[in-house]
Amino acid sequence: MFEVRPKPGLVGIVGAGGAGLAAAQAMQARGVPYVLWETGSGLGGNSR
Ligand SMILES: Cc1cc2nc3c(=O)[nH]c(=O)nc-3n(C[C@H](O)[C@H](O)[C@H](O)COP(=O)(O)OP(=O)(O)OC[C@H]3O[C@@H](n4cnc5c(N)ncnc54)[C@H](O)[C@@H]3O)c2cc1C
């Protein structure tokens, strides 16, 4: 059984593709501080 237990602190998200943006949205909705790194020039990853 897999259980997610949120811990206080800063979450690091690598890549602003669909997965990264979804993770950022989930963090935002839960009030969890995060930093999102994107190496490219825009958001969206492969779907751009
Ligand atoms: C040619 C092609 C066509 C596709 N067509 C479709 C389609 O029609 N429909 C569909 O549903 N899916 C399609 N897909 C699949 C879809 O693009 C992927 O499933 C989806 O983009 C994966 O999202 P992701 O966030 O995991 O990765 P990605 O979209 O690849 O995003 C990853 C991001 O991380 C960034 N990154 C990488 N390394 C670092 C680093 N070290 N530091 C900071 N940032 C970093 C990249 O610049 C990128 O912005 C296609 C894929 C390809 C290649």
What does this structure look like?
The chain is α+β, with helices and mostly antiparallel strands and 48 residues long. It has a domain at 14-38. 27% of the residues lie in helices and 17% in strands. The protein contains one helix and two strands. It has one helix at 18-30, and strands spanning 11-14, 34-37.
Topology (SSEs and partners):
Elements: E1 11-14, H1 18-30, E2 34-37
Parallel strand pairs: 1-2
Determine the mean pLDDT.
90
**Spans with pLDDT under 50 lasting ≥5 residues?**
none
Shape: elongated
Largest pleated sheet: 2 strands, parallel
Task: Count up the helices.
Answer: 1
Strands in their spatial order, largest beta sheet: 1-2
What's the count of strands? 2
- Give the distinct bound molecules: flavin-adenine dinucleotide
| Gyration radius, rounded | 12 Å
Helix content: 25-40%
SSE run? EHE
Judged by helices, strands and strand pairing, the structural class is alpha+beta
Query: Alpha-carbon distance between the termini?
Result: 36 Å
Percent of residues in β-strands: 15-25%
From the structure above, extract its key features.
48 residues, alpha+beta, two-stranded parallel ribbon, 27% helix, binds flavin-adenine dinucleotide
What's a quick, concise take on this entry?
The protein is built from 1 helix and 2 strands, in the order E-H-E. By secondary structure, it is an alpha+beta fold.
